[in-house]
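Researcher: Re-running this chain for the archive, since the previous output was lost when a drive failed. Same request as before.
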Amino acid sequence: MVYPVIIEEDERGGYVAVCPAFEGCYTQGDTVEEALANIREAIELCLEELRAEGREVPPPRRVLVGSVAV
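Model: Regenerated structure tokens:
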């Protein structure tokens, strides 16, 4: 499965990665590559936990990112 993730630059340095498909599924890394590797691991842990609890695994959903001028 391919889950969309959002990566933002952290104001204190590094990057924060979030997977909207799973509540509370986020991590960080010093580089984008590290943040991606860490969020992959976090998603795998979420999937393991859901399966162990016999809960339904959410399907990947579309995530839209846009910009708003203010």
